[in-house]
Amino acid sequence: MFDDEVDEDNEPIRYASAPARDPAEQLPIADRVEIGTQTGKHFKGGIVPFPPHLNDSNLLDALTGDDRKKVNGFLSKGYKPTVYEYRDTKNMLLKCVVRFDHPTERKIPLPLRYCGKAEGDRDVFWFTDVPGSKPLYGLDLLVARPDAPVLVVEGEKTADAARTLLPGMVVITWSGGANAVRRVDMSMLACRNITVWPDNDITGRNAARLFAARALTDAGAARAAVVDVPPDFPAKWDLADDPPKGFTSTADLQHLIDTARVVPANDAEALLRNPERQAATRRLLGHEVGYSRVDVTAASDALAILDPDMGSGEWRRIARCWYHAFGAAGLTAFDEWSATGKKYKEGEPAALWVFYARDEAFSGPPLIWLFRRANRVAEEEQRNETVDAKAMVRAEIEAMNESHAVVVRGGKTVVIREVFDPRFNRYRPEYIRRSDFVDKHVRSVQLPVEDGKPGKTVPLGRLWFGTAQRREYDGVIFLPGRSVGRGMINLWRGFAVEPKDEPEGWSRLKEHLLHNVAHGDSASYNYILNWLAFGVQRLSEPVGTALVLTGAKGAGKSILSVVYGYLFGEHHFSTAHADDVLGNFNAHLEHTLTLGLEEAIAPESRKQDSVFKDIINKKTLRLEEKFMGIWIVPNHLRIILTSNNDQVVRVDGNDRRYAVFNVTHPSIANPDARRTYFGALVEQLETGGYSAMLGELLGRNISGWNPEAIPNTPALRKQKLLNLAQEPVQSWLQERLDEGIFIIPGYGPSAVPYRWDDTKTTAVPLADVKNDFIEYCNRNRYRGTERLLITKLHTYMPPGFESRVERVAEINGKGTRRVYDFPPLDVARASFTETTGIDSWSEPGAG
Questions:
Q1: Scanning 3, 445, 651, 821, which has its CA 20 to 30 A from the CA of 350?
Q2: In angstroms, what CA-CA distances link 685 with 65, 502, 507, 513?
Q3: pLDDT, tens digit (0-9, with 9 covering 90-100), for 579-636
Q4: Full set of structural domains in the chain with CATH
């Protein structure tokens, strides 16, 4: 389970970045240079320095064969080469970037590395970059000026120009452009004060923020900030370009550096977009630093079996394991063990402990991994040493406690297991029956010697479930915004960001809501903001209404659901499948606050419509989980529906559950402009906008706001009209009222048309009304019957509207017929509006 070579329980250790093809290629550059120097080859992650006599002035002349031909080809086409040297802390040349510039063609940068000697003592070069981690441009300067502030720019040409402009700073960069930041070795930036100056475009700004986050998180920089390049600077401008108008001195540039926006340490994980490490800060279970109750002496004996002069990567992995298990109290033992090796550097373990302490969600390999490693080394070296059996058993149980606990769920005792779900980039709880848990974990664990007899072996699952040292809780509950006793697990994990009082920090999204969703209507705009504010302020109750956003693809319908859901972290759920919400096994809704539905509800389905309306405003939810039964929980849902379809929801009469808005965008037909627009919007949110959004919504005054006071938008009226297809009588009558001329136009040569009157009632034969209704249904392919007409028509008319018997003169004497007394047009329209909520008419009246 916890061995890096034997996959014993199919449980990978997740605490480091994805490995390269060879793990040694991810070592710090200094270690890789040491390997390359010793072997003389790029072998096992090694980097071979260039021979000392080669430098930028004679390097290209030393190339032979195909590499020389490549250079000559560029020269013959008018390209001018410039060689940028990447030197290490000992001033050894590790690689070069040869930049070929042309007056009219685009620049071509090519990395060049030295590959050692070939047969005949010939130097071998490759126009390829070193694999794995990449060195910084300016490592030699970082060492030469250890106390100077560091400025990071993009590109070697820019770095050289900035060194001239800003001599008080150490200016560095990396190779490979904006997309290569993740491959840079940041280790030399530990404890440094760095500022990143981005290229003036979205890609450059994203790269700058990522570099700053990596410097903080991976290297332990003391401080990292990103320059806010003024918006009036030319696109893609950098420090190698001519100063923009108004910036005439170095002091102007220095002012931008001095006022650069600091990247908070707690935002670094989000900027790095390492979803698992980010999710780890919000786990239900997990282990805090110093979790282990294993005897430190027994653990130290196990540590002593290992050679501290191992590779630096493995040494650091053991340091992470030890710090996670014992915290600050474990430093002395780890330092004493490290000091027995030849590579020991005084103070290095202490510096690591300080660095680790800054990580709010620190994790490392469990202690059982270290114990197994020690036992394997002792066995391979045939040493008469083993890890204490009691310590081994305790470490096994602690490792299982990290992600498992026994709880009561639906009246049954089960195991909750917390796993990382890469589909949603979050940890999620799953519930396992005892029998399934025991069947899953069958590896044997050797118990300690008892009464002089060898200890028995017990399956791990049965051992853990049967011990008092297991993690357990009385139950699982979801109480957002509230705390519970230690005996319960509260599924609420808090908001995903900290609120910030900075209303302009999310101005782009507010502009999108005002202009493209509310279409400049202040009532609609304020309703949306109040709805969002209600959702973050009153966590214990549902809003009672759903936001419905319609519109064409690319208009930006879904972005509100996505960014609003981001505030709630694990408590946001998005789906395009109705069964996820309306079907069985819906227990995931228990800890869902924001629910995004994309084309998920079929308005033509009366069953779905009925259940969904109940979910919107009912105070409780009925949940069901496989093997766990059925239970009732409070409803906390805030629902946002999005759809490209014309009809999205079934809006009946004066239904107050749906606030409907049609989303448009002026650049919907221009993919590049649309991408730029939404890219800038998202960038603002990711650079403090989410915190600003949460801060303003939490502080918004919604006292007295009624969620059911829904704006009567054109989009809502459209949904009501489209719903007429589901109600043939309503649809027929709406058409007659909308035309405002004929109640029925009359059919056949002898048929009589009946017109609406402005002041008095109009008697219309029931038979003629039936014929007109049936003809309308046939024409529109609706399912309409005489019985449906008779039972439904009166519901849209004023009270007392019923058919009556009327005497009429016939050829053979007097007869009778049934008639409807239709009221004046305005009265009929008012009654129809009161029942259906439809109040827009094409014609003003009968005239």
A1: 3
A2: 52, 12, 9, 14
A3: 777 767 777 888 899 999 887 676 666 677 778 888 888 888 887 777 777 778 888 9
A4: 23-126 (no CATH), 145-273 (3.40.1360.10), 296-473 (no CATH), 503-718 (3.40.50.300), 727-836 (no CATH)
